[in-house]
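Cross-posted from the bioinformatics board.
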Amino acid sequence: MAEALEVKHAQRQLKAINQALDSGRFMHVRKTIHDMPACDIALLLESSPSKSRTELWDMLDADFYGDVLEELSEDVRNGIITQMMPEKVVDALEDMEIDDLAETLSSLPQSVSKDVLKSMDEQDRQRAEKALSYGEDTAGFIMNTDAITLRSDVTIEVILRYLRLKGEIPESTDTFYVVSRNDTLIGTVPVTKLLTAMPDSSIEDIMDEDAEAIPVNMPETDVAKLFARYDWLSAPVVDSNRQLLGRITIDDVVDIIREDAEHSMMSMAGLDDEEDTFAPVLQSTQRRSVWLAVNLVTALLAAAVSDLFEATLSQMAVLAILNTIVPSMGGVAGNQTLTLVIRGMALGHVSAGNSKWLISKELAIGFFNGAIWAVLIASVIAIWKQDWMLGGVIAFAMMINMIAAGLAGATLPLVMKKLKIDPALAGSVILTTITDVVGIFAFLGTATLLLV
Amino acid sequence: MAEALEVKHAQRQLKAINQALDSGRFMHVRKTIHDMPACDIALLLESSPSKSRTELWDMLDADFYGDVLEELSEDVRNGIITQMMPEKVVDALEDMEIDDLAETLSSLPQSVSKDVLKSMDEQDRQRAEKALSYGEDTAGFIMNTDAITLRSDVTIEVILRYLRLKGEIPESTDTFYVVSRNDTLIGTVPVTKLLTAMPDSSIEDIMDEDAEAIPVNMPETDVAKLFARYDWLSAPVVDSNRQLLGRITIDDVVDIIREDAEHSMMSMAGLDDEEDTFAPVLQSTQRRSVWLAVNLVTALLAAAVSDLFEATLSQMAVLAILNTIVPSMGGVAGNQTLTLVIRGMALGHVSAGNSKWLISKELAIGFFNGAIWAVLIASVIAIWKQDWMLGGVIAFAMMINMIAAGLAGATLPLVMKKLKIDPALAGSVILTTITDVVGIFAFLGTATLLLV
């Protein structure tokens, strides 16, 4: 029995390897990574700056290339592959399972993937092109074609004899599929049922005829939702004629579930999901600049709104000092609503059926939030600046902006989804623009009317 | 063969049920939900406002209570259970698997869970108290005790006869565990290997002696990382003497992986992970107010910094108008870095071994970002306000703040982790405070020195 596992072990190992690299003890590093499983080598590469990454890759046995590439995240994998010779890439990809191969090829720059496809042998190329033809992010793209199929009229005894002859069953097999003569899926048999069934019973007697199948063109996020909801370990994939094409296993779905959940967080900060923490400086600077450019426009827009009130501001400097409070509170409240609605949509809780209720709920919260923080900020300002009128003005602006924030936070993602724009990506920028503009208008506008 | 599945179907059903509820067609609703699987009923409850939730729950057969409760998220489940009579709760929880039972009990208010435990029969109570004793969020808490154990000296033939007699194998069983006389785990046998092995070979011949086991006190997030990394479907749980205590299956781990990934996004917006999208208005208002209170203090702090420059602001209203641009850009850049580092830590990529490299990388990006946006904003302001000197001042402040943002975004999560504070929770507030204060100081301070 192996040592009980410790996650910290991996981190210590990482540190040791980095120190060994720095001090030039390459033999030691080579020996260490030779004994590591592929997933740990992948973690090591992902945790290393790009310079050490190249050094580590060069020390790796070519036999391991495929296994390690399979485990790497897109950005890191592409960085490594584009530096390899096409023939070496072909060697590395040869042993990959078909779903991993398709994913790897589709994420490579087109010129590289073309080169790789060209250097493949006929059969592999056909398999790869077939998987690619289903389109990225569909069930067909993430399925494997190694499902074991059975006929319904044979007995358990015969199946067992056949399996013992075959000697090996593909990894993560928990279910066998029963197909008719023309490969139509007619039922499923869990592996465990073969163990408990009497030898003389036939597959027909023990198969589940109601098992559900995934259409080959279903988007992968929907596939992931079904797996999570029904606790599946694997599921068959069929075409529109119910012909069995392959199977999807939970290990690939776990990655999709994690990526989907991460996607919202990364998008809301204006980052690419696959952004590599240890990418070179210039590449990272460039990737993040889109978001900063959008924000600059937003910030200038807010400044332009303030600019309308220049006369007011030059008469009362105190307004300039307090001008950021109302927009800031509206931004936070609106982002809370936005985040909650985006998550609700991802979990399948929010849809057309209950969106009206949700918007009125968030409006009500905005109203209560507005009332609470209006009273509080009015008191603080009245005491700090000894001006009750000023307190009243900021309270009024707070009230208006909190209601606007609730309304915008709840409706924006719903509207954007209808327009087929990813709400996580653009939602928070648009929201902040709204709460900035409304907040400044409400505060400086009211002040101009009442105080100057 | 059942219809190929469609995710949209669930949403249409949801809408239809809500409409039926609104128009008082209760018999229709009762009939519809009677035919739905537990996970779909759970989704329906989670997607309904609290009023409809109670109505729907009352229409449900008591036999379904347990299965549906198991699938619900914490907040929604607690809302329902606290309105049920303790005896009914006990009935509902009776058939739950031990890991789900422990989770449900631990999330209930203490008074309710005490009542429930008291009403349970002796054996169930002991099982539940045992699971609770391992502590929430540990391997012991999420494991099941239904693992099938084998002895190493028996033949496959004997095992198969035993399994056929037994007739049923627990759900999600992909591996049998081989134990010695005192229940020490000595090996594992995949279910599929029993199918391919020759009948006269013994378990000893085919078992894997190097299979890894999870210590009972390992935190659940570490368990999830191991499952994701090694593509496990299940894993044995052992105590410090390597005695087998139970097993953890991938379906429970999938939930943990999703919750972990969601946790950062929700925390960064100041929301509780379990926050229920359809909770009553006042409950939601109260939950979100903590974050708004913190933000009010932050906003007032920023105002207080501006207040130091009141004399400058009253001389040049244009400074008031431009005062938000530099803090806003710093906030966005800093949050990008923060989000990336928090995700890197969650994936296990960022640790003490490479944190120095990471901080210098983010400093460099801050420097480049600063240079790019300084030139841009200087040009915009110089043209807009016809004042090159003002453009120079804002450019200088932008440079300073972008570097501060990179430094703060990279170091904050590392420092907070050392202090054992959740970086996702407090990180973005502290960061924004830093970028606000530095941005305002740099801009108004320089302006005071050079322009007034």
